[in-house]
Amino acid sequence: MFHINFGICIRSALLFVLFFMVPTLSSAQTQNYCLVFDGSEIVCVNSLAECVSYSKTLTQYGAVDCISGTTQNTIYPSPTNLYPKNPQTDATLILPTQQSTAKGTLEGTLSMDMDPEYPEPNESTSIKLSSTLVDLNRSEIFWYANNNIIASGTGKKEIEVEAGKLGSTTILSVIVKTNDGLRLNKEITIRPSELTLIWEAESYTPPFYKGKALLSPESSVRIVALPVFVANGANIPKETLVYIWRLNGKIVLSGVGETTLEVKGPKPYGNLDISLETSSPSGSIIKTTNIGIGVSSPEIIFYEDRPLEGINYNKALTNEF
User: 3-state class of 30 per DSSP?
Assistant: First the structure.
């Protein structure tokens, strides 16, 4: 009861201030900008300047936002405004006078998992929302990409989004409104990049052999990283990137500009599992990839050595010679 009476007192104080400060305000249905306190419209004015002026006075009572529209409009909650009035249709948030922080709002209670975690350019990725403290199945959930709503609904915990082109930035945010009045938000940033691994084994192949030299037991193999990271429209030099190499799950090399890894192959019938995590100097762009390299069994091939012509590599000898 104390909390309810306190809220009523605040609203009464706001109305008192408004009616004595702005006696000439007309009907809210004909105004363009409305003051919103705790999700409820207090009063509407003719211009954004008036709205901002009054909101600066009223912020002493709590979070006050200037919203475009009238009392007949309904709005989605904005990523910068955690007080949705009636989240059914879209509207534009013109100016938040300060960041809203609802009483009882919990920080760090939402988790967003991406699959794949670091998508390729234009690749589809699945986003799943989870929480151990609130019931998301009965909560209203609103999804945004770069402040544009892309999905909403009760219990809408999972969506699929397409990553942008190489070098683009997509800010994916979610707002959750629970049945008991809590407002929770979470935000992640998607920055697509490319990372390719190529390898070559230091094993023997016959002259004029057109195929790839395969990895033989305990021979050396070189793995080279080919990253493509773009920021602000320009490629980030690969020499400035940070590399973390793992062999069979264990870190074997790390550092700035470490684009090449050389390791010894396994014993017969073994495999190499190579993974690499690459990040930009600021850590804002991250990409991971991995390859598996299997060991091939050596094979002995005989060729005819002609006294006048030399070794004939054009034809291998069979069992009959």
Answer: helix
